[in-house]
Amino acid sequence: MSTALPELSTPTRRSALQLRHVAPQDWDGYLARMDFVCQEQLYAYARLRYSSLTAEPVVFERDGEVVGGSLVLVRRLPLNLGGIAVTKWGPVLADETAPDAALVYRQMVEALKAEFAERRNMLLSVMARPAVNQDEFDQLLALGFRPGAQLRAPERYFVDVRHDDAGLRAGFAQKWRNRLNKAEASGLVFERATAEQEPEFAALFRTMLERKQYVDHSAYETIPALLNHPIPALRYELFFARHEGKAVAGAVVVKAGRTATYLYGASDDAALPLSAGHFMQYNIIRWLRDNTRTKWYNLGGHDDNEGLRTFKTGLVGKTGAVMAFAPSAQIATHIVPRVLGQAALMARQTVINAKRGLEGWRSRPKKAAR
Asked: What is the spatial distance between Cα 47 and Cα 43, in angstroms, rounded to a whole number?
């Protein structure tokens, strides 16, 4: 079943920007027509991942036309002392290429600040996205926001999909291209899968985690629902690379907007000698180019894994870009929510860092007994 989408358009006159709250169940319909979509801005994701928080999506209108929006997650502080409002990789624009896109972004942030930090006495935390040719973090600082927590490995890798096959291959690093040539000669088959095939990917994913002794901190449990999102444009895509009929590598991708995102990858022992990852990613790029309005394909980060860094650097090659996440940016116009909100966010980050440090220590190879 498909859901009808609200009409959006881009700003034509520079009248005042208006913030309007919308029902959470209606938000994804607005988001589907924006130029940037990610899982952290999806209500279908947030209601499963952050069920303890209150989702408060807002849209921004000019002359009655929606020019952007943001999913804001809110946690109230005890004793009615304000709260914390967080938006990750928002607000988002209806048209990133409009001449006044930077102005619209600034006005959207100003409206969020007025609503959540000033009127409602909250600490507002905004995480700017690592988008190509964007200066969102600088704008946040100019508006009085202060830097918050930084990701441990902030680099993100972007592939420009708007090239023909020859242009794509010429852009890859030479060694990466050689591995792709090898993969194409090994009998691999590329497949765009259906939501009903998710259990096959889940089994491949679990096997990979066990083999590599990885600890999964993601919200994989949200994947089945998002592969079946009622709005077709927002449905996650599932891909496989098969060898002799068996899935040896798989990927889950967000395809909406102008920036697609590689969310999950999985492989078995046969994938590496077959260079199945090279084959699969090349064909995902071609599929995005031919079937969506994607300009950039975000491969995600490297998580301090040198092999992953080398793979993604080679894929980005000459025509892509490596961008870094800026720290989160925070602002509060009242002292109590500033102090309590920052303390709560710091405590949460300390717990996360401690857990991951302990898990990393536990997963280290054990020394052989003497």
From this structure: 6
CA-to-CA distance for 131 and 367, rounded, in angstroms? 42
Q: What is the pLDDT of residue 150?
A: 79
Instruction: Examine residue 330 and state whether it is found in any structural domain, yes or no.
Output: yes
DSSP state of 89: S
Q: Residue 108 sits in which domain range?
A: 18-150+326-361
- Asked if 69 contacts 6 with a C-beta cutoff of 8 angstroms, the reply is no
DSSP string, 60-81: EEETTEEEEEEEEEEEEPGGG-
* Total number of residues shown for the chain: 370
Tens-digit pLDDT profile for residues 326-367: 888 999 887 655 666 566 665 555 544 444 444 444 444 433
Domain count, the chain: 2
The pLDDT value given to residue 339: 61
What token pair was written down for 316? 């980005």
| Mean pLDDT of the region 60-67 | 96
Q: Alpha helix (H) ranges present in 146-239?
A: 165-171, 174-184, 198-212, 223-227
Q: Is 122 helix (H, G, I), strand (E, B) or coil?
A: strand
**Lowest-pLDDT choice from 124-128, 174-178, 281-285, 322-326:** 322-326
- Please state the separation of Cα 336 from the chain's center in Å: 32
pTM confidence score: 0.87
213: helix, strand or coil: coil
Contact call for residues 242 and 248 (beta carbons, < 8 A): yes
Give domain status of residue 226, yes or no: yes
Cβ atoms < 10 Å from Cβ of 367? 6
CATH of the domain at 44: 3.40.630.30
For 270-284, what is each residue's pLDDT tens digit? 999 999 999 999 999
Burial class (CB in 10 A: 0-12, 13-18, 19+), 239: buried
Q: Share the mean pLDDT of the chain.
A: 88
